[in-house]
C-alpha cells in the first residue's frame, strides 16, 4: 500500500507537457532558407545555448569566406522555416565591412540586397519557455552567405526645361 501511495504522489507532482506542445530536440534545429523560386540556401550552425550546453562560433564572414555561395537574384525573397516547434523570436543581420546591419524580416520573409555582391548573414532564433516567459528554452544562431547577381534598376526620369530656345534634359534618379 505504501508503494502505491508513493507512485501516486510522484505522478501527481509532475506537470506533463500538453500533447499539442512540440518539444525541442537535443540540438538546435537547422532552419531551411529558400528563395521564392525554390532555391535552397545552405545554412551552417553558429553559436547557441541549448539543452546540451552552449557553443560559441566565429562570425559568418570568417566561417564562410572560403565556402561556395548560393546565387540569388537582386532583391530575391528569402523565406525561413523551421521543423517542429517554431521559434518565438527570429532576427536577421547582414555583416559587411566591419558593420552589422539589422535586416527587416516579417512573417519569416526577408529580401536579398538590391546590389550585386557577396553577402554574409547571421540568423538568430530563440524559443521562450511556455511556463515562464523570462526563461529561454534555447537560442541559436545560423550563418549563411549568398551571392547576389544583377541589380534592380533604379527608376530614372527626365525633366525638360527650356533655356532660351534650347531644351535641356536633367536626369533625376529615384
Question: What is the structural class?
Answer: mainly beta
Strand segment count: 13
Query: What is the H/E order?
Result: HEEEEHEEEEEEEEE
| Helix content bin | under 10%
**Domain module count:** 1
Count the helices. How many? 2
**Which percent range describes the beta-strand content?**
over 45%
Task: Tell me the layout of helices and strands.
Blueprint: H1 2-13, E1 32-35, E2 40-41, E3 44-50, E4 53-55, H2 60-64, E5 70-73, E6 77-81, E7 89-96, E8 99-103, E9 109-111, E10 117-128, E11 136-149, E12 156-163, E13 166-173
Parallel strand pairs: 5-11
Antiparallel strand pairs: 1-2, 1-6, 3-4, 3-11, 6-9, 7-8, 7-10, 10-11, 12-13
Question: Can you walk me through this structure?
Answer:
The chain is mostly beta strands. The chain is 10% helix and 48% strand. The chain contains two helices and 13 strands; from the N terminus they run H-E-E-E-E-H-E-E-E-E-E-E-E-E-E. It has helices spanning 2-13, 60-64; strands at 32-35, 40-41, 44-50, 53-55, 70-73, 77-81, 89-96, 99-103, 109-111, 117-128, 136-149, 156-163, 166-173. Strand 12 (156-163) and strand 13 form a beta hairpin. It is elongated, with a radius of gyration of 25 Å. Residues 1-20 have low confidence and may be disordered.
Amino acid at each position: 500500500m505504501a508503494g502505491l501511495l508513493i507512485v501516486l504522489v510522484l505522478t501527481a507532482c509532475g506537470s506533463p507537457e500538453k500533447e499539442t506542445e512540440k518539444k525541442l530536440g537535443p540540438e538546435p534545429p537547422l532552419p531551411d532558407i529558400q528563395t521564392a523560386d525554390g532555391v535552397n540556401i545552405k545554412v551552417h550552425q553558429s553559436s547557441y545555448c541549448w539543452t546540451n550546453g552552449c557553443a560559441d562560433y566565429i562570425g559568418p564572414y570568417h566561417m564562410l569566406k572560403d565556402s561556395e555561395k548560393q546565387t540569388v537574384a537582386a532583391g530575391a525573397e528569402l523565406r525561413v522555416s523551421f521543423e517542429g516547434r517554431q521559434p518565438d523570436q527570429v532576427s536577421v543581420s547582414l555583416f559587411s565591412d566591419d558593420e552589422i546591419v539589422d535586416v527587416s524580416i516579417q512573417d519569416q520573409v526577408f529580401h536579398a540586397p538590391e546590389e550585386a555582391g557577396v553577402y554574409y548573414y547571421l540568423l538568430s532564433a530563440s524559443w521562450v519557455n511556455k511556463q515562464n516567459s523570462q526563461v529561454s528554452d534555447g537560442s541559436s544562431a545560423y550563418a549563411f552567405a549568398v551571392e547576389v547577381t544583377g541589380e534592380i534598376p533604379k527608376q530614372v526620369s527626365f525633366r525638360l526645361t527650356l533655356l532660351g530656345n534650347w531644351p535641356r534634359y536633367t536626369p533625376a534618379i529615384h
